[in-house]
Amino acid sequence: MIISPSLLACDFNNLEREIKKIYAYGCEYLHLDIMDGVFVKNISFGLPVISSIRKICGIVFDVHLMIVEPSRYIREFAEAGADIINFHVEACKSDREILETINLIKKYNKKCALTIKPATSAEILAPFLDKLDMVLVMSVEPGFGGQKFIEGALDKLKYLSELKRVKNYSFDIEIDGGVNLENIARIKESGANIIVAGSSIFGADDIKYAIETLRK
């Protein structure tokens, strides 16, 4: 299991310290939520922040684009230091646009991921799974942290995990939203192998212990 702490929940007065801390504690990924205030009703951070923190360490940048028309900025995020570029099916107007965005991400030699909101069926991902490196299931409404886990996400994880097994696909299954010690065992059993956690890590009194406990 890979733990991907969400930067949105960290102490922004001490970005370098926070990132180096989770890297030293064994986290392989860092989840970066990019919000444009249009696709979701919130604005987070963008390209200058990613370019700046890219210099801190070699942690994998798991970039989650919550923006409209994501294909417009694939090159910029690739050049800023993204390792995985993750965009929403709901941000695209057609299957053709989804495929074009996938191909663009691959063009820049980045791993490609697709995300679905809680109200979106996992079946919509089926035509693209053979082209993806990762799928992200949102277990809260995107845009704000600290929300309660939506139980319906578990059925989506099970569907994707079974399809992955039957078709012999190799994509990772990531989940984001409301993950804590009470539900992480069920999440793992349902098929997720990458866990995004924000406040349960950066909001903990002992971040090292929080990461180790989630992983166990």
So how many helices? 8
Give the termini separation.
9 Å
Helix % is 25-40%
Shape: globular
Largest sheet: 8 strands, parallel
Number of domains: 1
Spatial order of strands in the largest sheet: 1-8-7-6-5-4-3-2
Low-confidence stretches: none
CATH topology descriptor:
TIM Barrel
Structural class: alpha/beta
Number of strands: 8
Q: SSE string, helix = H, strand = E?
A: EHEHEHEHEEHEHEHH
Quote the beta fraction: 15-25%
Q: In CATH terms, what is the architecture?
A: Alpha-Beta Barrel
Per CATH, the class reads: Alpha Beta
What does this structure look like?
By secondary structure, the chain is an alpha/beta fold. It has one domain (2-215): TIM Barrel (Alpha-Beta Barrel), CATH 3.20.20.70. 33% of the residues lie in helices and 20% in strands. The protein has helices at residues 15-24, 47-53, 74-80, 95-107, 153-167, 184-189, 199-202, 207-215, and strands at 2-5, 29-35, 60-66, 84-88, 111-116, 134-138, 172-176, 194-197. An eight-stranded parallel sheet has the order 1-8-7-6-5-4-3-2. Helix 5 (153-167) links the parallel strand 6 and strand 7. The chain is globular and about 45 Å long. The mean pLDDT is 94.
Chain-wise SSE layout:
Elements: E1 2-5, H1 15-24, E2 29-35, H2 47-53, E3 60-66, H3 74-80, E4 84-88, H4 95-107, E5 111-116, E6 134-138, H5 153-167, E7 172-176, H6 184-189, E8 194-197, H7 199-202, H8 207-215
Helix pairs in contact: 2-3
Question: What keywords describe this structure?
Answer:
216 residues, TIM Barrel, alpha/beta, single chain, eight-stranded parallel β-sheet
